[in-house]
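Checklist before submission:
- one chain only
- standard amino acids only
- sequence pasted in full

Submission:
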Amino acid sequence: MARKRRSEEAKGGAPEWVVTYGDMMSLLLTFFVLLQSFSSIQLAEFQKAMGSLKGALGVLKGQPSPSPAYKIPSPDISPQFEGGKPPELQELKEYIEQQGIEEEVTLRQTEEGIAVTIESPILFDLGRADLKPQFLPLLDRIAEMARKAKQVVIEGHADDLPINTPQFPSNWELSAARALSVLHYFESRGIRPQDMVAVGYGEYRPRVPNDSEENRRKNRRVEILVNGLK
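Returned file contents:
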């Protein structure tokens, strides 16, 4: 009688199909949570993880990779400006096209705002930091946009050709002087000094390798970062 009672008690509880259904729903939930975590992964974190993996596998900086390097494409960042994109941005693009200087002056959107890259022949003669008067209207249009920014960062860059003059003992001084020339001009156009930063990077942040005159020309540049546009 005891065995029969225990057998009847074992048959109690949820039906077998309910248990199977519950397991399946738990697996589906886990699967969708995993998909969501993959879809929200940040590019920077992914690249950091890839760097750690390369280090663990012995693919260190300065050593050839066993397979061709693949550059992860950057997302098309389109920051949202309050009240839409500033009209000065469109006017600046139109002016650059009208002047035919699209190759020397480029615009790109960043997470913080707008970056304007100007190759040095547009603004400066070789080895000098005096602004060329014929291209001051370009800076005027940038200044119109920069007045609405929370911060304006002006970066001076040089190529790797050495310079040693009484005014510029090295490319550090030359790149910094060019950034300051732009800063002081913006100050004369009504941008508050406390909203601006000028920095010289010398030849240490090239866009492309300094292995040809064309590439050196691209590396001699001023970059204006107009951040926090409204």
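Reviewer check: DSSP finds eight helices and five strands in the chain.
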